[in-house]
Amino acid sequence: MQLPKPQRIQTKFITGLMLAAMLLGVASSAGFYLHLRNVLEEEVRDKARLILMHVDSIQHYVRDVLRPTMYERLPEAFVIQAMSSSYISRKIMAPINALHEGAIFRRVAIDARNPEYEANDHERELIRAFRDNAELKLWQGYRVLNDEKYFLLVRPVRFEQECMYCHGDPQDAPADLLKLYGQRGFGKRQGDIAGVDFVGISVHGSVGRVERTIFTYFALFALVVLLVFFAANVLFKVLVVNNLKRLNAVFRRNVTDDAGSALLHQLEQGDEIDELVDGMEQMSEHLFEARSQLQDYAENLRRMVDERTDALSSEVEARRADVRLFVRLLEDMYKSRSRAQLWRMALPQICCRFAAERIAYVCTMGSQSSFVWPEQAAMPELPDNFVEVLTGSACVAVDNRLFVPVESSTGNAEGLLILLWPTEAEAARHDRDVLLALGRQLGIAAENLTAIDSLFRQMNVLETIVEGISDPLVLMDGCCTVLTANQAARTLASELTGGARSDGNILALFFDLHAADCPMREVLSRGASDLREVSLPGGRSFALALYPVGGRDGIADQVVVYLRETTMEKRMRMQVWQSERMATVGKLTAGLAHEINNPLGVILCYAGLLRQSITDPQQITDLEIIERHTRQAQRVLRDLLDFARPKAAGSGTADACGVAAAMIEVFSVQATKKGVVLTLDRPPERLVVRMGVGELEQVLSNLMINALDAVDQHTGLVRARVAVVDDDMAILEVEDNGPGVSADDAAHIFDPFYSTKEIGAGTGLGLTVVYGMVTDVGGTVEVDRSPDLGGARFRVTLPRGGEQGGEQQLGLGGTS
To answer: Where is this region: Disordered (predicted)?
Structure first.
C-alpha cells in the first residue's frame, strides 16, 4: 500500500534514524559489555591477590613468631600445628574451599608429604611450567574446573634455607615429623620448586550478572529510542513537512497555465524535496523573464548613478586634496624650527589648495606677529568683532573674506587665519568644517613647536652640563642599558677595554650586570643611593656612586652612575702619610740612637780594659761575645743614624742602565747558586737619573736581596727593568714570581724594623732606607703585584738628570 505523499520524506527520515539508533545501540552495548568484562577481570584479579597476601601474612607470622617461640619452649619437639607454615596456611584457608562461594585455594606439591595435597595433572602441568621457565614468577589466566570457569592466580613454592630442616636430610629432621610422615617429603634441595600456591576465583556467576545488566541496559535503550522516534516524528512533521507543503502550495498558486498544471501533476509522483527542486527550476524561468524588464530600469538607474558619481568624484578629489594638504603641513611641522618658519611654509600651500587670492595669519598671543602671502600683498582688514570670531570656535564669512580661528589643543586662541577670494560666491563654496579642522591642526602644530623648542633648549643645556663634567657620568635604565654617557665615560670604557666598548657602560667594567648581586638591581629595589669604592686588577681605584632616578609613578627605573678615579689621590695620601710617619720615626730614631750609642761606647771601653787584666780563656771568650754583640748594636745604630740623618737631595747623578747591569752581575753568582733566573730589561742608550751611584746601588741591592729571598730554589725568577716614563722621570722595577706582598703587609712594608722574613734573617731597615733615599731626591717607591710573574713588584720612580756634570763613576761602593 502506497503511503500518502506528505509522509514520504518523513518515512525516509524515520527509517534512517531507526537504522542509526540500532547501530548506536549495538555499538554501545558491545562497548559496555567489554568495559564490564574488564572491570570484572580486575575485581577477580584483586580478590585472588588478596587471598595470596593473606596466605603470605599467615606464613610470615608462623616463620617469624610461632616457630621461634615454639623452639624456645620445646627445643626438642616439633609441633606441626604451630611450626609448619604449609600446614597452618592449608588449615586456615580450608573454609574457603568448604563454603563453595566461588573461591578455591590449594597449596600442592609433587611428592607431597601429605598425600591429600599431592598435585593433580593440571597442577603438575603448572609446576613443570615454573620449573622450565625460571624467570616466571606468577601465572594468571582462565581455566575450566568442575564444569565451571575460574580465573587462576598461581605462584611457585621454592625451598628456602629454613625449609631444609624439615625437608632436607631425614637425619637432621625433627623426630616428631618422622613419626607422622615417615621418609616422605625429604631429600629436597634449596631453591627447588616443589609446588604451587593455587588461587581460583569463579567468574561464572559474575558473567551472568554482566549479561543480565547488558540486557537490561539494551531494553532501556530500546525504550528510549522509541520515545525519541516518536518525538522526532512529530517534530519533523511540524518543522519540515508542513513548511515544505507551504512552499509547494506557493508554487501551485503561481502556476496557472496548462503547461504548469501538467508539471505539477508530474511533480506529485516524487516526494516533497523533489517537488521543491523542480519548483525552484520553474521559478528561475520566471526570473529570466523578469530580467528583461529589469534591464530597462537599469539603464535609467545607470544615468542617475553616473550623475551622482561625478558629484562624488569631485567631493572625493577635494577630500584627497585636503588629506594631501594636512600631510604636507605635518611634514612642514617636523621641518620647522620656529613658528615663523611654519607659517611661511604653510600659508602658500593653504592658499593654493583653496584657490584663494590672498591669505594671512595674525597671531593674537604675546608676539602679535603677522604673516601674509603673497609677501608683497597688503594685510587684510580684521572684522570689527574679531575677538568674538577668535573665541567663537567657528568660521565666519564677511563678504569675500573667510576668518578661521586657530586654536591650541586646550582650546586657547592662538591667532586668526584670513583667506580672500575674488568674489563672495567663491568664498561661500568651500567647506567650513574642513577649514575649522585646518585651523585647529595649525594651532596644535604651533603649540608643539613651542614645546619642542623649549625641550631642545633644555636638552642642549643638560648635554652641555653633562659633557662639561670631567669625571665619567652615565644614565642607565633598569635593564643596564646606557641611555646617556658623557665623553669622559666613553673614553674610560674604550681605554679599559682596549677599544672593544665605546658605549660608555662603565658599570660593566667592575660588575657582572646579569648577576644577582649587581648594585644596579640593589639601588632600584631599595630606591636609595649607593656609594662604594671599586678597583681594577692593575691597581687603579675609583669612587663609584649610583643615584636612583624616579619615574612618573614614583618608582625608580633609571640610575645615574658617577665614577671618580682616586688612584693618584690615594697614592699621594699614602705618600704624605708615609713621609710624615718616616719623619717622626727618623727624629725618634736619631735621639734614641744617640742615647744608646754612648752606653755602647762605655761598654766597649771597659771590655778593652778588662781584656788587659784577665788571663782566663773562658772569660776572654765571654768578653769577645760581649764586644761582638756590642759592635752589632753599633752597626744597627749607624744604619738608624744614616736613615734619620738629613741628606742632600740630588747629591749626584748616575747611569741607571749601567748600575742595574752591574748589580745583575754582582748578584748573578748568588742567583746561580740558588737556581734562580736573573734577567734585566733595559734600553740600549744611557739613562741618567738624579741619584748618586752609591745610593742607587744600595737601592737596587736591597730590592734584589729581598726578591732573591722571596723566590723558591730552582724555580725562582727575578727580573729587573729600567725604562723611561717621560722627559722628566724614569722607572726602575724589580719583580719576582714569589708569594708577593699581602695588602696588610703593603701598608707597613716601608716602616722601620718591619720585616716579613724569619726572625734573625733581616733587621727590617732595608726598605726603610730605600724609601728615604728615593724620596730625598724627589722620587717615589711603590709595591704591588706583578701582572706577568705573579709575585711582588717594587717600582722606583726617579727624576732624570742631565747628561753632563756631576755623574759619578760606576762602582760598587755604598752600604748594602
So the answer is: 797-816
Answer yes or no: do 94 and 159 share one domain: yes
Cell of 591: 735621639
Same domain, 403 and 332: yes
Average pLDDT value for the chain: 76
The sign one gets for the Cα dihedral 37, 40, 45, 48 is: negative
Cα separation, 639 vs 768, in Å, equals 10
Residues 6+ away with beta carbon under 8 Å from 378: 372
Same domain, yes or no: 198 and 220? no
Grouping H, G, I as helix, E, B as strand and the rest as coil, residue 154 is strand
Q: How far is residue 125's CA from residue 141's CA, in Å, rounded to a whole number?
A: 14
CA dihedral 12, 15, 17, 23 (to 10 degrees): -140
Strand pairing class (717-724; 677-681)? parallel
What's this model's pTM, rounded to 2 decimal places?
0.35
Confidence band for 307, pLDDT divided at 50, 70 and 90:
confident
Q: How confident is the model at residue 524 (pLDDT cuts 50, 70, 90)?
A: confident
Report the b/e string of 513-534 with b at 16+ CB within 10 A. Answer: eeeeebbbbebbeeeeebeeeb
Which secondary structure element, helix H or strand E, spans residue 815, and what is its range? none
Cell of 775: 724620596
Beta strand extents in 95-183 (DSSP E only): 103-109, 139-145, 148-158
600: left (phi over 0), alpha (psi -120 to 50) or beta: alpha
Mean pLDDT across 451-466 = 73
Name residue 108's amino acid. Answer: V
- The vertex-688 CA angle with 687 and 692, nearest 5°, equals 135
Q: Please report whether residue 352 resides in a domain.
A: yes
Grid coordinates representing 646 are 738629613
Given 643, 658, 682, the domain boundary residue is: 643
Separation CA 646–CA 636 (nearest Å): 18
Written as nine digits, the cell of 554 is 614614583
Question: Is 596 found in the same domain as 710?
Answer: no
Instruction: Show which of 536, 563, 590 is a domain's final residue.
Output: 563
What count of other Cβ atoms lies within 10 Å of the Cβ of residue 197? 22
pLDDT of residue 2: 39
Predicted confidence (pLDDT) at residue 732 exceeds the cutoff of 60: yes
